[in-house]
Specification:
Layout: H1 3-9, H2 21-46, H3 50-55, H4 67-75, H5 78-109, H6 115-127, H7 134-144, H8 150-174, H9 179-186, H10 191-202, H11 204-220, H12 223-228, H13 237-245, H14 252-283
Helix pairs in contact: 2-14, 4-14, 5-8, 5-11, 5-13, 6-8, 8-11, 9-10, 11-14, 13-14
Length: 288
């Protein structure tokens, strides 16, 4: 049998290129353009005057009005909103990581009664709409002094974002063998020491993914923030943008500039951490 015939009978590798390759890349390019188009249109709108925006809403700006960003920054109170959002988002992400990490560790490694029932409870809780809890929460938070405080809002975020993060970290922790923890216990380490010094470093990619998801949700959340925060000095950036948009004289170019300012921190964070985010999410097995 000739060498050419032998090569022709070899099975094609799964990772080898095929005729569908260019079509896949074309589809990915189209999806990228579809995802980036709203941001590009928003950027063009932010650089136009109100008159130009009404006559040419989708085209390029004739004369870029860069001062719209400075005007929107000052008039919309974006500095105060971004500072408040940074505090709320950081506290939410750190709290969710600690709560969900400890809960996932207890469900997988400790002798917790009825772990299947707890998992089902977490699944049900993540499916419940937020509107069911607004009336009792407003009453309880008013009585306890947590209403109109950032800490009260962060507590609610911990409660609603921790169940999904717990399931995320649980699926990640199941794939890690418990040998390291057993060795640490033999050396006399307690459960807290085992969790913080052994388990947490091992599941760090999953913890980072859970923290990013909780941070993005807290940054973009609107309903709870507008319900539980009334002080103008404590409003997150999403409510600052909403208040600016609801002004008496709406300048859509300035609103677009303020919206782009709000979106930039999220875009920058995702671009910096996108590889770790995707790797951590895929390694949990929930992406399958």
């Amino acid at each position: 049998m000739t060498t050419t015939a032998r090569r022709s009978r070899r099975p094609r590798r799964l990772g080898s290129p095929n005729r569908g390759g260019p079509l896949v890349y074309l589809l990915l390019i189209l999806l990228a353009v579809y995802a980036a188009a709203p941001i590009v249109v928003l950027f063009f709108s932010a650089l136009k005057t109100p008159a130009e925006l009404s006559t040419n809403p989708m085209g390029l700006p004739a004369d870029a009005a860069w001062e719209n960003f400075l005007t929107a920054w000052n008039n919309a109170g974006m500095a105060t909103g971004l500072r408040n959002s940074a505090v709320i988002v950081t506290a939410t992400a750190v709290g969710v990581c600690l709560i969900s990490g400890a809960a996932a560790y207890a469900m997988v490694r400790l002798d917790v009664p009825a772990p299947g029932a707890i998992t089902m409870y977490l699944l049900v809780v993540t499916a419940l709409p937020l509107q069911l809890f607004l009336v009792p929460l407003v009453s309880w938070w008013t009585k306890t002094g947590l209403y109109d405080t950032q800490f009260g809002l962060v507590l609610i975020y911990w409660a609603i974002y921790s169940p999904f993060s717990t399931l995320l970290l649980r699926s990640y922790l199941i794939a890690i063998p418990p040998d390291y923890e057993a060795a640490a216990r033999i050396d006399g380490a307690g459960e807290l020491t085992v969790f913080f010094r052994i388990v947490l470093p091992l599941i760090w990619p999953g913890v980072l993914t859970a923290g990013l998801i909780a941070a993005l949700q807290a940054y973009n959340e609107f309903l709870l923030a507008v319900t539980f925060i009334q002080d103008s000095e404590a409003l997150p950036v999403s409510i600052s943008l909403y208040s600016f948009q609801q002004g008496f004289t709406v300048n859509h170019a300035l609103v677009a500039a303020a919206g782009l300012i709000m979106a930039l921190p999220v875009l920058a964070l995702f671009l910096v951490l996108q590889r770790r985010f995707v790797e951590g999410y895929a390694s949990t097995g929930l992406a399958n």
